[in-house]
Protein 1
Amino acid sequence: MEKLIYLDHAATTYVKPEVFEAMKPYFVEEYGNASSIYSIGRNNRKAVEEARATIARCIGASEPGEIYFTGSGTEADNWAIKGAVYAARKKGGKHIITSAIEHPAVLETCKYLKKEGYDVTFVPVNSEGLVDPADVEKAIRPDTALVSIMYANNEIGTIQPIKAIGEITWKHGVLFHCDAVQAAGSIPIDVKDLGVDLLSISSHKFYGPKGVGVLYIRKGVRLENLIHGGHQERGKRAGTENVAGIVGMAKALELAVANMDQYSKKIRRLRDKAREQILNRIPYVRVNGSMEHRLPGNLNVSFEFIEGESLLLLLDMKGIKASSGSACTSGSLDPSHVLLAIGLPHEIAHGSLRLSFGEANTEEEVDYLVNCLAEIVERLRSMSPLYEDFLKANK
Amino acid sequence: MYSEKVMDHFMNPRNVGEIEDADGVGQVGNPKCGDIMKMYLKIEDGVIVDAKFKTFGCGAAVATSSMATELIKGKTIKEAEQITNKVVMDALDGLPPAKVHCSVLAEEAIAAALQDYRARHGLDTDGEYAGCSGCCGGCGFKHDHGVEEDGE
């Protein structure tokens, strides 16, 4: 069988067997509509409500009624942002504050709203990839309707000072949304402690199924609806419930929270080993983003003089699956907006590699990865005119 | 997303390297955009007897450089000038739309190296070479990219 070393857990994870087992009954046997009155429907209603309670408990919500199921993390982000500013419109709110390094689900939503006439402030990050809460406070205006800052960045894994920002938004009476899609399952989330009003998570980032997300809406916060139709999700998000997905998501989050200490220790050890070996063995490498405030499983490095897509293709031939912030992999002419925001020159951003470790990875895989990387980087540099120029200049 | 031929030329690129006493050298592209091609030509009696390249770029950039050097080796200068990006692309069984610009870069690398050859040998040059030195779309010159450009 072809070797498969999966180092792209930030993109998505497999579904854990226990999670899949928990979902199984809801496809063939328990197929009733959760809104129906007969027994197979009622059983599904019960399953959905139990899942809601589990998720509420896992993120520290006050009550299950604050949990709303969506079709994805992206939908949760869209709903939080559009729903909040549309609701604020009547009271004169027309300004949004977000950061320069958000996921496209937030950035593109904000850009869309900008076209609709809203003002958006993109607060910068420092060279470590961290937002300064003081910048958020300075950006607040009387007409600010929402602040939206991610918990952890999807490319460089940096963890933002959400609690400090939450104190600021609370003081100014501004709604605060947090995209916690990358954080959920890797670091603890307590919505009350963080002081957020809205928080998005997505099931497939923590060994749950794809196609299901959650928006936490603090009790008392009013959002305009985006999905109109039936009365599901207490009249706020229409559409027949994805019962199997919801059950799977709750099971996956429950497992993640129960095993978090062990899990984060394990992936942190693998990540640190990979980082150390890469830095020891390969010259002209830089690690992107703070190592102190960072998700345990994330590593993002740039190899000078080479381009990321070539690197990914050659890694793939060795069975290693990873991702890059190069323009060629994003489908645009510019490399990753996150790497540019932390001040990387374009040519170095093009040569970036994101490795995100997970539960099934091993120490041996890290050794193999670093061996392959050393060989591939050398090979690509040997055919790079940039490296040739660099060597000639440093003769 | 890539054809087998593209993958073959990416995995086993032909003619990688430098020619120490090259008769013409051309470099196109820009590190800012993630693609640079440098082409070296050895020319005897108007015939390209050897071609080598170095490329910083994606899989398609490497494959188009490799194929371009293969296509021009043994050709006269006049014949080499007929090697457009479409010829390179067709020889690779096509490229994904987002990668067509890599084949344009290959065409321009050949043109830049030939221009350098003419300049060095005091041959007629048809004016200033206005080849690609920036990002795709950065030169304002309408290339036959073979696809509709995104209005982004």
Protein 2
Amino acid sequence: MALPATELVGHDEQSAPPSEGERRAIAGRSPLRIAFDRLRKDPIAVVCFIVVLFFVLIAIFADQWCDLLGVSTETVRASDFIDFSNQLPKKGPPNHGFDPEHPFGVAPGTGTDNLAVWIKGCQTSMFLATMAAVLSTIIGVTLGLIAGFLGGIVDSIISFATDLFLTFPFLVGALAIAPILNERFATDPEKLRTVSFWALIAILTFFGWMGVARLVRGEVISLREREFVKAARVIGAPTRRILVKEMLPNLIAPIVISFSLGLPAYVAAEAGLSYLGIGVFQRESWGRTIAAATNWWELYPQYLLAPVIGIAILVVALNLLGDAIRDAFDPKTRR
Amino acid sequence: MKRTKAFAAGISATALALTLAACGGGGDDDTSSNSANNDDLSKGATTSGGKNPDAVGPAPELEGQQEGGELTVLAPDPDDGPALLDPAALWSVTDNGIAQDLLFRSLTTFRQGEDGSYELVPDLATDLGTPNEDFTEWRFTLKDGIKWETGDPVTAEEVAFGIKRSFDGDAFATGPGTSYSKPYFEGGEDYNGPYASGDDFPGVTVEGNDIVMKFSTPFPEMDYYSIFPAIGPVPLDAKAADYGLNPLSTGPYKVERFVPNQELVLVPNDQWDPATDPARRQLVDKYTFKFDFNPQIAGETVLSDAGATTVVTALQSTDYNKAQQDGLTDQILVGPQPCTGFVMPNFDKIPEVEVRRALAYAYDYENIWSAAGEVVGVTLANGVTDPDLGFGLLPPGMAGRTPFQGFDGEGISFDPDKSKELLAEAGFEPGEYEVSFVYDASTPEGEAAAEQRQRGYEEGGFAVKKYPYTAGSLYDVWTDPENALYKKINLLGTAWCQDWPSASTFMPVIIGTGSAYNTGNFSVPEVDAEIERIKLLPVDEQADAWGALEQSAMTDYQPVINTGYYQNIFGFGTSIQGLANDTSVGGAPDYRTIFISE
């Protein structure tokens, strides 16, 4: 992307000819190291990283947080918390002040603690998005490498498959699979709970690997003609070694970038699917809370705001961090 | 009639709208009392106002009635309205409300009397029909001067043709014919309507202007059954499949536009003669019905200025709360429905009466309703919220009914200790007896309600297994013994509405052996014998006999657990006047009395 002239000037000023010592230090740093140093100096990246780290810690230690804060997602007797005349909580928001026992209040109708549900929802989102991003990256990179390097008929087949999956509407696939699983595991709720969770990861992965595959394939095709690859071939290195040792390290940048930009997309997708009722099942999820809370917007806005703000902050932070990582890896778009 | 989607709503959550329930009942809903209260229910708001065979048109003038204006009626999702407007196929609260009040006249109909109660009056017939001694023959005489919207006169042959069409259980599977035409009429079991079995049917014949019906089973309630559009005229050249898309009207309005399950626009029918019609009026210039409407938008619209001439047939509980909070209570009408929700323990799997009784004390009524998104004591109510309502089978207001107050007569409430005691009597330690049920998992409210229910049972000493179901209506499971889930569960359910104000449309369906909606397969020979005996009693003794049977069956067997009586919340705009809850079709706006004020 083109940069404004002012920024170009700024860079010129900064990049005064380095001294001998500096030049030696630079020479010894890997591309990863350089990128990391750039990231560290990028305030947006640092802030976003802290935000993401916050959510990651919430997700990893969800149970501990709940214990620490004394909240739980267990079913409580609604009448202990809910005023049946208007279905709103007896204590805490929206009609009463802050309730230290339930910092986010309790859900209307049921009296379940909102904070506990929010924390568990964060866990669901983070775990699901991470799994989906890792799996789709692995699949995408593998197929991209093979297609790009081998070329010919293999490339044609993989490229065709990529295009095919890109044309297939993701939402329709998700809509179709949910009832099939429900029917199949209807008599075993425990299994259904697990299966539906992994099925959602599978669906997200299934329809999420194409971007990475295309990106990697393109990179590989250009790398394939480079001297060091040709040299490796000439000395008879096996294909596997060329792919893993010669090519992969040069692909770190696109892989990390697509991974970090994939994460927020999956967080949003999970919430969207859960909102539609075809996402996670019998588990706390931000999307499900949003689905339940939309009706209450006017009477109890806090109920809807907690998951919406959670998703918004997490997705924005992940996206900005992803952008920053891309900028750090790719000198051409460096700010 | 069944409350298909409504029950999913009741037990599981979504909006309260019943689509496949049918009709009946009378009611005394005072149009001026718009606010919600339990008194409506306990005072017997669904009582019939009796019969008035001498009523003649035109319908009495309403207080302050005005003509003109265009009315919009929004039926929120999941109420998707009529798929076909065929008289023989109509058997649901929403559809019958529209069809009976505005479009299709039948032999008899209900109207709101001066005291607000609903009375049975002649419609196309000159009176309420003449039965013979043992109710095996009924004779109705067609009024003169009844016209189709085309201006052609309606003939007795066309009425007979319409009635015969109701026997066609294949073409009109959703209609009331399979429940009331086929079992009662002479030769009805073998007759499949004029399209399949030909026009020659001795059960329904025409003599001059008279329609004569013969019955193999005595049918003292033919005059009530005649309120259905299925007991009305259909042109002789009507096709089986397409007539419902383009039906001819005999009522005060005719169809201008009909998109099945989406939209219906009605305009005045100039061939309708008010002098022949004791019940209907033609006050509004245009009706626009929109079905399957977004519930949030419907609620927003009707409570704002934009919705001054709008009626919403089922308001969400959040909109109800909002209106309460904003002081808009005069735009809300809470209307009782003659419907009861049940948990039905499988009689073969739970044979111990103590256990079935324990289940009634382990059901945490108010908390389950609250989690399901119902307004406790308003959209669902029973003896827990108002002791006068009781926990019986029959909905409040039905003749002969005494509120059932538990096997010991002390009332029922959520009482885990009592549940455990009863389990101990049956010889079970807490946590030993496993109950299992299926619930609607497609909404957060459905899951929340199931969790509350599980918690209640567990506190009451049961072990619980619950199965989520998202593939459709819970009736798919409850009524299908081949279903894999059916085999796993021992608690089923039904929500049932009366077809007309008689326990004979209720008791046999709920506790009679072999009834499709007796999903718990309750079967006791003495109860069946009593049902058969009561059916043959003189009409004026039946009500009390049904009431006594309800008491004895509930006390001795606890065949079902009452999970609440239903009430519907209507919302209406500031210019709407005369809105009443028409319990005669099971709880829909009474379109015969609505008008728009300037």
